[in-house]
Fold these 4 entries.
Entry 1:
Amino acid sequence: MDTNLLLAYLGIGLMIALSGIGSAYGVTISGNAAIGALKKNESAFGNFLVLTALPGTQGLYGFAGYFMFQNIFGVLTPQITAIQAAAVFGGGLAMGLVGLLSAIRQGQVCANGIAAIGQGHNVFGNTLILAVFPELYAIVALAGVFLIGSAVA
Amino acid sequence: MVAKMKKFTFLVFYKDYEVFLSDLRDLGLIHVATNDKVVSDDEASLSLVAKLKQLQETKKVLNKARDKKNDQTLHPADIERGFQLIDEVDGIQQKKALLQQQLQVATKERDAIAPWGDFDPQILKKISDSGYKIHFFVVPSSQYNPEWESKFDAIVIKQEASKTYFVAVTKSDTLIDELGIEEVKIPEVSLSKLNGLTDSLKDEMRQLELQMTQLSADIPSLDVAIKQVESEITFARVKSSGNKLADDKLMLLQGWAPEDNMNEISQYLESKNAYFEISDPAPEDDVPIKFKNNKFTKLFEPIAEMYMLPKYNEIDLTPYFAPFYMIFFGLSLGDVGYGLFLFLVSTVAAIFMRKTLSANLRGMLTLVQILGASAFFCGLLTGGFFGFQIYDMQLPVFQKLKSIVFLDNNQMFILSLVLGVVQILFGMILKVFNRIRQFGFVYGLSTIGWFVLLVSMIISALLPKIMPMFGTLHLTIIGISAIFILFFNSPGKNLFMNFGLALWDTYNMVTGLLGDVLSYVRLFALGLSGSILASVFNSLAAGMSPDNVILGPIVAALIFIVGHAITIFMNTLGAFVHPMRLTFVEFYKNAEFSGGGKKYSPFRKLS
């Protein structure tokens, strides 16, 4: 049914868009901090690069979620049922929202770490560990999308 | 493991103190217990710190000036030269700043005169001597009134960027006031002269930069000077760590050294006639930590150091998390091809840069080799190879392998949780040993209770035939462990206190364990999302390349290479960081790691 597919694609759209926007914000927040910190400590660019890249994963998870529905579960067809469409929409919404907010928050953690490194504190390892705390929930959301998908496929 | 340490106490006559300290430095094995202040604030130390800053600043400037394209040969290190460089570089920089200022002024003047063209200002003077005055004006073109040409003898010189530049030739100043526009001041130097000036200034700047580049060949001298000053600072700090005794006649100094080096140290010190005592560390001592691990575990020490060093009387967890970390990395990356890639790159780097690499970096490369190999083998579980599925190929080898090791997504999901349970239970065993070692046997009992309880639950859930859930045997075990949990969780306190604390403990344990185990889902999710992303780039490479015999393969190859470069970077980063979190948060918490030890850094000459 066409309306079912419409609902499913709405979910897919939200998943890719929101998590992508989140990552874009996250890497921008940490990237801005990195540029400022370079002024004080240009030798730590390698560290900054790694920390700036961390919030970039959420966008990829959203994209990976789309591919799961498309290729692994193969539900995005005109034969999709109402339940399947609702599952895709729900999973997509969850992944999108969690990705959006966790990436922004992760970007802030990274930015603070970058600022501290710029001021000469040796907190690279600590920041790495703390920065993946928010990311766990994006990972859980992706695992949730996977479970939802396998339940209805 | 943490190396055993011995405490050294030295007693030195104040006159021999400095000689003794340099002897100690030559020995290079004693970690002196310094006070927390990084530098003492007497004048000598402060000037040393200032000197160090100057040297580092100079080095920064010279590093920037270095000609990176042509490999400039470096001059041999000479410590005196290093100190001279401070003033030389400073002088050049000051000159440069002055030139920069002059250049700015000249450029400004040139810009002001440029629209009027090149003329000799002397001519203006001659004209004014003969009774005529030339006035210069700039107005927006829209305000320019052509009537001025007859009224004030205005002559338009130039029209540019909607501005009109014109001069008015008059005999008296009153007419000009009538015009009501402010006159433009003209520099008293001609355009060609100003051009010449800026060129020569730029030339001088270039000369100075060249000088700086030449000076940068002396960077090695700076390096030795920096080392010299740094070691002087350390010396001063160690010196100020001694306590004065007996009317300032005696100095008391404390230090630490590994037990393994004890004989060597005693012999050396006895040959120097120093008075010293060796003792075992007391529980309240802040003993510096030196790792003493086998070759495999040693590779994981840098990871352990990223978090915290253990306390001296604590079990060092590095050997216990190393195998887990290796497997976790492999699962998170989860691609045969990426694993192979990491392994090959680090192997090639290790072979080709064998001579130039420091011991630390070599250890890192070996670590990457091991982690790459782990990703290779863990990748076989799912069969991803640069995003392709090797088990889809009908080769007998792969099909045979598939029947042995292949796990589908659901099985991988369960595998990651099972690994979590295993690591957490293992952490609990370590916690028992840690408590027994640090506080005594009684303190380990409640954790033993928890461990037995959890294991019995797992056994009766999985193998109900051997031990039925909540059967007599199971209930007995639960009962015994409950006694341990409820009444031995904080020995020394009274029964009710113990019971109350145990309830709180139970709440934390139940909620904590659930969260901890679920946290291991990341191993599955990272591996899955990584392989999906890799396969996405493969389909992009196949789908987006144009239908052209020559261009098609090129574009496909480009997408493939760039795409996989991105995924390798992101996935490796994730596979490196996430297992680290599992180690430091989930595992360390359940093993009750407290940490906070200082690193053993002996007082020695910097080379």
Entry 2:
Amino acid sequence: MKLERFKSIVLFCLVVISIVLTTQIWLNISIEGIFIMSENKVDKTSELLSSDNDKASFIKPEKLIVNNNGERTLLLNETEVGMIYDRILDDAKDMLSVVFETKEGIELEKRQLDYMEKLRAGRTVELHFPFAFDYRLFAGILGINNPNWQEIKNIDAVVIGYDSNNVYIVDKADKSIYQFKSKSLKSSIRVMVDMINRGKPYSYIFLNDVDPERYSDVVFIPTDIEDRSMPKLSSYAETDINTSEDIASYFFKDPATLRSIVDPAGTVIYTDGEKQGVRISKSGVIEYVNYSTQSRNDKISFTIMDAVNIATNFVNTHMGFPKDSYISSIEQTFINNKLYSCIIRYNYRYEGIPIVNDEVSMDNPIEVEIVNGEVKRYRRVVKTVKITGQDKTLKNPLEIIDILFIRLINDKKIDIDDIMIKDIYLSYLEYGMSNPTSMIPVWIVEVQVEGSSNTEGRYIMNAESGVILSEPY
Amino acid sequence: MLRSKSIKIILAFAMVFVMMLSSAASIHARRLDNPIPVFDFINGIEEVDQPVKYNNKELSIKGKALEGTNITISTYWYKPSNGESIIFKYKDNVYYEDTDGEWLLQHTDECQVGLSRIFGVSVNIKPGKNKIVVETDNGESYELEIEYVDKQKITEKIGDLIFDRLNLEFK
């Protein structure tokens, strides 16, 4: 009798397991979703400088969009969903590594750029990078030095079908989407997306679906943000936290032997008198210059991959990277078809929102210039961010666009048909002269104006009031 | 002894049944990927087969209209006369229209179109038949019928169907 009862319980357990597993497999309800996973929250109030970042972690999308059969959302690298964000990113990189490394068993199909519309209508995640990565460089950063499929020149975005596990590489200059299909492409993105959907994410729309003439294909806005707010932040410069001597010690072995000058603006300059110097300004800009690089033999051969390695290692060992840093642009200069110099820029985000500093000479907070395979110049203006406890409501992005149109049409006398909105996104902007400096949420609108180059560029608008705080001139 | 054996048979049958039914539900759910059209009051709306099959609870309504146009978006849910029916409304591949039910207003949202000439609103819909009515203050309007299949509800229904009818008693 006892054995019979035991058998019945075992059978009952099997039925329950079958229900759980079939639910998970066929209806996209994750086991993690059924048995809620606990997550250790990381305190993000203090900015952690890291000096052990590997270069692959600097490939991050500017936008991570989740499409779910017509509904879509923007996933930010926030504390609450940080684990999910990282997992999607890691899975995407693993799948790309498989594509780059393997040729056998992978089917490639080249499609037109308008195939993106179909991908967006299905169940996919889109990773839009801040600039078009060179294909070989992208693979190299992921650790694959001789990738397959070298007909691909650039990677603007990567799309992953989370039901099919197909990988799509978007090359906008080539107007192509490269579709990769293989049984060896596996990921847990579907499970991650299921967890995102359980959190009732904000709905977003692409404005080019409505008006492709006036809005680019990455203008992606939330439809409803009445209940959404962002904390006002305060920030401290690295020069407020560290003494000039401490900062100089990152660049010179023996700071005691250095000569130092303080100019009337309070900028401290350290130099060894022959090769290197560091300027530390009161506003927080730290600039290192190696005077000797230009006079070196320009026959030294180096690649863009070498430059990324040199720059990343240099920043790692010279004050480190802020949390959530990523490569935001790469500018190359060639002399006689040979790479002569390049500037690698890095950006960082707070809770998934990029930080815009008030230093007009630096669009990006970290910049490294490599000449002849050596660091010539290194500039940074990195802030330690804290929450103030004050929240700011956000104006609907459509209202923000309206305010901008009024400014351009009424004050600058521009025809509305000549205006193209290239992008709109939230950021934090340093605002005011106090110490610590305030950081307020802003909408950044990137505009292209036909026949009026001095009005096109980046407009920074207070996210709460819509007041234009900065515009091109 | 006989009772225990019959429980085991029922449970084994349930296991096979769940696997078959959930697979079928999945196929049904995956097919629902028709795009929701843009409600364009300037150039006209693209024609779509209605009802549009959809499997998200939230629905983004987007459209285009001239500056200053007031837009009203209303969502209705069709209450069937014979109660809620999600899975078994198709019989022998023939769709039986329930004409005795009624449309219930669920929510109304208003907005004014600015210089961007774009409006966008998110609405929630209920499992079953829904109707979205987008109207302008100058009398133009578009209607769209949407059939929302809630995968979660299907899972629950499957569970209910199996376990409600089983009188599970273990000695």
Entry 3:
Amino acid sequence: MPFNQKHLLGIKDLSKEEIMTILEVAESFREISIREIKKVPTLRGKTIINLFYEPSTRTRSSFEIAAKRLSADIINFNSSTSSVAKGESLKDTVLNLEAMKPDAIIIRHPASGAPYFLTTFCKSSIINAGDGTHEHPTQALLDALTIKQEKGDFSKLKVVIAGDILHSRVAKSNIFLLTKLGAKVILSGPPPLIPPEFKEFGAEIDYNFDNALKDADIVMMLRIQLERQGKNFFPSLREYRNLYSLTLERMEKAKKDAIIMHPGPINRGIELSAELADSSRSAILKQVENGIAVRMAILYLLLGGGRK
Amino acid sequence: MKLLIKNGRVIDPSSNIDDTLDILIEKGKIVNIKSKIEDKQAKIIDATRLIVAPGFIDMHVHLREPGREDKETIESGSKAAARGGFTTICCMPNTDPVNDNRGVTEYIISEARRKAIVNIYPIAAISIGSKGKELTDMVDLKEAGAIAFSDDGQPILDSNLMRRALEYSKLIDTPIIDHCEDKFLSQNGVMNEGFYSYLFGLAGIPSAAEEIMIARDLILAEKTGARLHIAHISTKGSVEYLKMAKEKGVRVTAEVTPHHLILADSCLETYDTNLKVNPPLRSKSDIMALRNALKEGIIDVIATDHAPHTEDEKNVEFDFAPFGINGLETAVSLILDQCVNSGIISIQKCIELFSTNPALILGLKSKGKIQIGADADITILNLHKEIVIDKNKFQSKSRNTPFHGWKLKGTPVMTIVDGKIVWDER
């Protein structure tokens, strides 16, 4: 099994083989979550810290459950504000936590590169649970696991990612991952939110959402961050909804068996219509379920069996 | 005490001298220049195989005093300058309080007189508090010793204020130095906007933020006939506008920093906050354009934009770190290695950029030249000596350099200010 990383910082740093290894291990861990006793002793005696500088429901609890199902001890450190605003620097906070001898630190932080910064002075494995507008590698991996289960081979797929690409770490990690696995990725959204340079990542851009959707196998919708309103990335929510909301009618343009994905939280009725979100074409809850298996795989590969 | 610099290769672009000559210095002035001077009373400096140049002038330095003496002081900054081969530095007014009145200007000059080992000239603010609203008393400030005017770091967004500043400066024929940045475009950006800012997820500062302001300033300089100096030019587009304006005869000069000539935005993959600087490190094609502009004489000056920050301030998430690179003690070696020894510019051109041209721009009539009667400010260079940049040896109070550990060939080895040896690392 080729996997020799100490940290998980971004999809950018992983080879195609390493990604496939993670997905295989995750696949084998799925079964644990449907047992009556949902726990294995694999990481007993390992200590993990969940260090979240941004609000999170899914990712934080998903990591926590993943760690617990592998019998690791996990503690949560929550901070709704940045370290700087609190007065203690991130470095000081983490050095203090490091003194408690954790094996891994899972960090979510509003500043891009914060997980890289930690690796410059930490002994623990650092796991990126989302940094600024940079990467969210475990989200892309759980998306990949979901796509693999639904569609199998990546190389024949047309994946449309729509919305605020510029500010989305989920989009970024997914572009890196899906292009590495050979899928065709089309980005759609208002031009100010998709700079042309994104083509250099191996994706295509189609600002016309209706065109982009033609024959898509996967439609991945991103949450439009309401705080972007009034900054002129797009004129109004009304106009945004008219052009980029995924509705039943628009979904007709995609393939018949196309699935809908969304990293959550959803703005119902804005980027995604409620009836689609709740329809059988939606893989959203499957994504959440797969999140546990993928995070178990990451913890296992970084702390247990993977590293030599 | 007389000094006699013997057997050096004396290069003075202002008089087209490039020859092996001796220089006799007495009472702070150059009193004789010719081959084979003998003087029994003089202390002899053997400059064999060394280059003897007019003292280097850094016209863009942040000394942080008054206000942030934990980062740098007039004294420590002057030592850093001496070690880096500079005999004269000009300090920007973004101190606390801002240098927008005679009191602060005089304080800097008197502190410099007491504690500095190189010449220090304050640059005063264009607007009160550098707030971009009302002009400072420029004539009074000039009389108090201000050598130029700038709201560096707080770019003047109001075009009318910029126009009035340029017009008014004609009373004193002193350059207006502008940090060209349209803050509406740069917003909360922390690096050059482009492929790499998207790759690293860092907010971008587009080239247009600089180019729009440069274009505006050039138009205003042309209309007013006043003297404009553009600080730390960083983009290919800026060079094109500058070239066009110079061809039209606009009275404009421009400087570039060593880091903008050497480092590209792609190196930010480490998220090293020592690479966070404003204007940001640009693309490889911008670097090529800047290097060409040096060669062609479109850019007049190399200046460091020496911006000391404490280690604690830089040891944070990239978004939260302050902008700035500590430049005084690395600039000359970097340029000798990366631009002169690599064949991009000649050593004569290098001296012109570091000494002759800044002296002309700032109106320092007895500096920037090696001539009888000129000030005895001398920078001696060794083009062959190999050094390793070690931030722990800095005289600056701060250590924020991205060049720590770089091996370079070519370095300043002696700095003479006002006829006195203030640094000697031969």
Entry 4:
Amino acid sequence: MELFNTLIIDTDHPENRLAFISLVKDNPFIVFVAIGNSNTVKDLVEKADLLADDHQGKIARRVVWIQDSAIFQEDCLAFLKTYPETFEETVYPKVMAFTLSPVWSETKYIFMKDDPTDDVDVSFAYWKASLRERAVDPDATT
Amino acid sequence: MHRSPLFLLLFLLSSLLGQAQIFQLYELEKYDPATQSGLVKNNSYADINSTLVLKIDKPALLQAMNNYAQVESGLSEKLRQLRFILENQNEILAGFQVYSKDSSLEPLNNLAEEMVTFLTKIREMPDMRALYEQFSTLYTATYTRAQIRSTNNPALASDGVPRRDEFVLVKFQEYAATLAQEIAASLDQSQVKVIFSGYIRNKSGWRQVKLSDDFDTKVEEIYTVPRWQTEMTAEDRAQLVAIDSLATNLNLLVDTKAEDIKNWLADAFSADECLGNLQNRLQEVPGTITSLADAGKAEIEAIVAESVALVDDLSRQYVIAEDRSPGITSVSLLEGFSGQLNSTATSIQTLVSNIDDRLLTRLQGLTEAPELQNFVSTYEGCKADLAHDRDVLLGVGMRLRTLFSSGQSSAKFSMELGEDIRRLSYDAVPAESYIDLQGTGNRANGDQMKVIATLEEGSGDDAVRVNVDTRIFSLQQIGMYSVIKPMLLLANPTRDPGPNSNIRLDEKKFQFAASYSLLFKFGSRTSRAFNEVWQPAIGVNFGALDFDTDGTPEFSAALEFDFLKDYFALGYGYDFGVSETFFMLGFRLPIGAVPLPLFNAVESTN
């Protein structure tokens, strides 16, 4: 399947990191970050890329595929620690994917390995990360 | 439906091996619900004149019907799914805003928000997840990636391509309609009849008796129960009731939302204002062409004339649509109106193609004239509005129509289930009924009565009946009652014949005489030996003796004690003619007793 909405990261070169962080921080996107190179993750990336088209003209969606879990681990952990429930660093190897809300880039949904990855779960993950989850004026300076 | 003999045998065996009793009989006068007194058991006695209370154990009856009828598997699951979908349809459509002055003109924008709660619930239900996955996969397979991406931009021609959430919701609605039809088909099976019948046996054999005065023309009490009711648990029936309510509500909701579409349509037509201007500019075009030969000019004039006619026709269609849209008050009207929208969209496309592909192509290189510039800029502005109308009306209108018509379809089929629910004739089987024995015709002490509960399926030659409960008991006048019986009297005077007596019989001679006895008996409620073997009685015997052998009978009366069903009697009496006492033996004649309506006579109203 052709990936229209996905940034693929296969090395830890600085320019890749720049592209990743810029995609997340400098744009009002919902970002679906997938980690790993297993068949399950590949299927998940394809699904996330396809469902990224379902934004209906509202908040756009993008996918970042980090093919090696060791790449940009610190950045990913920093994002994961924004998850509303407690996130333990030790479970990072089991993380398959997570979604980030736009503007504040907070983690709103995490896929662990062995979690279901049906269309309903991916759609739900995107919706959890939509701006309506946060009752704060996005134009506020503080 | 044909049942195998093996099935019937197994069912009968299960009936014999301690199946719950379907009904109980009580004598009304003795019946106390608290203590269950007055129970008429098998092989017991019931008062021959009593009214019996027939108490039906409906749970036991339902169990018997469940055992009898074939159980369809999966019904509970379908009911649960249908109820879930209808509940969520109601919630989604209730929150779905078709029109708001402050929102964009595309009324489907907020549908995804309304479906978030639905998604949250689906994730917890494996079967619903599987359905969502199936429908979502179907969406991906049905439309190209380009078509899917185009749904995010209303400015792009969408050709009625729905968004994923609209598609999935429509599919769930279609699935609900299918479920409702499947459930209705499984409910619409043959009926089971519950029949209560009564018989009395006397010397002539069994005869059927009328159990109740409520049904003058029937000898059997028949209650017809749709078979599906026997298969349903209380939870299933509660689901059906909920489904009926949800379907009715959904139907009203769909029509209400369809009415909102007219408000949206009123604001959606944006090209109608520019059509008049466009027509005027078109008519100016031929006059500006001075550089062409007559043949070229004629060709352009012809194209302009066609275009003017198309604009004129389109203007009329807009007027019609604007006139009709306020009347869109229901999904069915929207269905009809969508044809109008399709026709308008086609006309727009025809006009745009005519001008783009023919007129502007022909005028290429000639369009520097101010009048022509005027026409081109007017046309470009109007073209944007026309394209908007074509895409939004065609795309969004079609999608709205699909969304609401599938919603109405699921509501319609679900409401048809409600008709089955409202015909809950199982509830018509009463908890109790009454059998007035006085209405069962001629009967006598010792007659047996049989009350049977039967299940019947099918009709005519294919009908299959199975008795599920029987009560056999005897009828008896309980307590004291009186009869008259002819007796053969053997009287022996207590005093020997002699010169001081009027007795002229040889010594120690019994005299035979005719007599009849007025007897008082007592019917036992419990003892068969007392009622049917010994049957003691006490009474008075009236005879016609002739102790003085003058050929003239003398009137006698004796106190008599009978036993062994009056075949033997002993007594002590007085011959009034000769003023002598006597001992008596009596023998009943082989003629039936005549009841004497003094005490507790057998009464009959039939």
